[in-house]
Amino acid sequence: MRSWASAHRRACVSAFARLAAAPLANLLNITVIGIALALPLGFYVVLANLQGLARDFTPQPEISIFLVPEATATDVRVLELRLKSRSGLAGFRFVPRAQALEQLKSRSGLADVAAGLSGNPLPDAFVVIAGVSDAAALETLRAEFAAWPKVAEAHVDSDWARRLDGLLAVGRYAVLMLAAALALALVAITFNTIRLQILTQRDEIEVAKLIGATDGWIQRPFLYFGGLIGMAGGITAWLLTALALLVFNNQLGALAGLYGVPLKLTHLAWADSLFALLFAAGLGWFGAWLSVRRHLSAHNPS
Amino acid sequence: MTQIVLSSVSKRYPGGHDALANITLTVETGELVFITGHSGAGKSTLLKLMAAIERPTSGSVIVNGQNIGTLRARGIPFLRRNFGLVFQDHKLLFDRNAFENVMLPLDITGYDRRESARRARAALDKVGLLHKEKARPITLSGGEQQRLCIARAIVHRPAVLLADEPTGNLDAEYATEIGTLFSDFNQVGVTVVLATHDAQLAKRLNPRIVNIRGGRLVA
Predict the structure, then answer these.
(1) Phi, psi (5° rounding) for residue A109?
(2) Which of A20, A128, A215, B193 would suit a FRET pair with A240, their CA atoms being 20 to 30 Å apart?
(3) How many domains would you assign to chain B?
(4) Which of the listed residues A108, A139, A157 is the one where a domain comes to its end?
């Protein structure tokens, strides 16, 4: 067990030594990997932020129930009782038509329009907090309300959020595809890097095999090297994304100031960052493994 | 107890060249065996079969009770650790010094680092190169390189030394020195199998001689 651990430690040290032996070439490799990974990582960060934003704006989906214009106070009472007895709702409030008009008037730009109206064209309304959030359940609920007497129509107010969600889902697929393509690039880069290393260390590999080294012993430093390159590339990508966010947030701050809302993109959470780094290291390891498999079998006896 | 038994062994290389034909030979533990013959007679191939560097085309090579013809690839490294290999072209690594070259077999077997260093120095001392442990192989003479190769072959205390033309490129004085080294190892119980076309060397050390010609044993 101790010799196993020390063999791994030695392989790790040897991988670092190989990294230091050709600093420029390895730095270039790491930069290439970093840039390749920064693209999907950056897109992912933007998407994750947009998703968070969408959540903030619609804590819970609401359904607006508009009554027919000729509805009386009794009709309103009846509907109110019916909503109260309907189980499964998170809550509701009544918006009388007069209050709706006041709200319209208080909104900038629409006061003139409201003042020009002869009467109040707005109906009484209930706003129901649905208590469910999936699209199918909301639609069932909306249809139920729409069928009640004295109800003109019912609207699900989370329509735009659902559209945004759909758009984000498409975005996620795009990021996934981009990530897959660039992960392949990372594997190819480490494959080739390790291939070149194997070529320059052909003598050492041959001698080691002749005097009884196992394939595992020979592979180990290359695998560590691949993992190390991948990890360094991942760190580079993370830093590049952080830098981009810093610059972007500066600009975004100015824009958000104009609209009077705080708007700021945040980087990946620590757990996600760690996962991304490990993933990059894993890809590097995998590329190295493929390369070593491919190039070591040539030394077996025939 | 590492005994090497070859039974009706033939080796045909791709392309149809028969390097060895119907060789039957047993090397007992502790023997000093010289395999002699002209270059191209199949001496190297014979050694390669013993160390599982090549597999026989037919017949069986049994080392330590293991059949090399059917040994799985993952078992080969462990079989090879029974051997110390000395090559005509030394196969030293030129990117590291003499000491590090000798350390390689111990690194491979995962030996304790301090114990390894002690053994490596002992091996260098045995071949008279301790004062050159920091030297790069490229700065050593041909004889010194061969001795360094021998130090690397014996550092893990193998049961069998296999040497392919160890004196091939050396003048008579160096050759004697190297021959004496092998004789010394044999004295302490190491089985030595040495391929050479150097008749002088054979005469002095009085080994068992196996002569092959055209891939066949000559009685």
Answers:
(1) 90, -25
(2) A20
(3) 2
(4) A157
B contact test, residue of A211, A215, A218, A299 with most B CBs within 10 A: A211
* Residue-wise pLDDT tens digits, A70-105: 888 888 888 888 888 887 787 888 888 888 888 777
Same domain, B142 and B127: yes
Cβ-Cβ pairs closer than 8 A, A with B, add up to: 62
pLDDT tens track for A124-158? 888 888 777 677 788 888 888 888 888 888 888 76
Tell me the CATH number at B68. 3.40.50.300
Nearest CB to B91; choose among A6, A207, A214: A207
Closest-CA residue of chain A to B71: A301
Q: What is the extent of the structural domain holding A81?
A: 62-157
pTM of whole model > 0.90?
A: no
HSE value, Cβ hemisphere, 13 Å, CA-based, for B76 = 27
Question: How many C-beta atoms surround the C-beta of residue B163 within 10 A?
Answer: 27
> Does a structural domain hold residue B7?
yes
- What value does the mean pLDDT take over residues A278-287? 93
Q: What is the ipTM of this complex?
A: 0.89
Chain B interface with A: residues with Cβ < 8 Å: 51-55, 73-74, 76-81, 83, 85, 91, 93-95, 104-105, 107-113, 152-153
